[in-house]
């Protein structure tokens, strides 16, 4: 990979996440604690909006005051213009995720290299090698492919979302990384998951991004608003990074060929969140019952955090607030088997770019 970022020690770097609602406070707190457990040398800046509420903000302020890991920044919601209000999102919870783009404004605080991590993530190995990765250029984005296997036949997924079109399906081991895309890559390879992002913020980049945000007519159609926007904005200029840095919890059983518990760096708790429910009997967790192991890992980090805060006797507010937001639902009880086999390299059929072929026939 080309080194366009200059000397590593010339960068001012941070992790950043976003919290817009109290229900994600436990996730952000444990993300910070897991960064501390694995001794990242970079701070976590938590951006939050007024929708978070006073109680949750005060809890974050207490945690930030007592522990140096967290820095706080209040930001405004980033919403599309009226004629582009999103109606295509697959879930109501994604409607305010355009605000994640506020992370690209961190040049205003002097940061020159930023790693965004969703608030529903947790760290299991030191992640600094991710933040110190080099991209082909400073106007590029580092990210992970969207997994489009759709093994459970979700009805909202487009027809092209199947295991033969997933960028992870051709990979054979945990150290293998998907090849960079080209304009001729199959369309699903251009889709990214925005749970983890690596970028170099600048005023020029933000101005271009904001102009695209305010002029494109596609915002209302995005199924995953922020990540579909980024895939459009960074078309042919985002670089695929290892699955280890944005390991969707479903990949443990959807992509067992590449998964490794030992090499996992950042785990992404997509869909239902582990803090909502304890792991049920027989290790059942997640709405399909398959996530008992990974959800228990989150609870282990939580119990470690809670013991430390109880012992130091400085964190009464955050303990109280977070305590009210965890274990609020009954555990899941059913385990639903996968309805089809996981993808294998032989499931990936040759891709023919029909538009390119048509151009060739027409002599374009």
Automatic annotation (TrEMBL):
It holds the Pfam family Glyco_transf_8. SUPFAM superfamilies: Nucleotide-diphospho-sugar transferases. Keywords: Transferase. GO terms for molecular function: glycosyltransferase activity. It comes from the Eukaryota. This is Nucleotide-diphospho-sugar transferase.
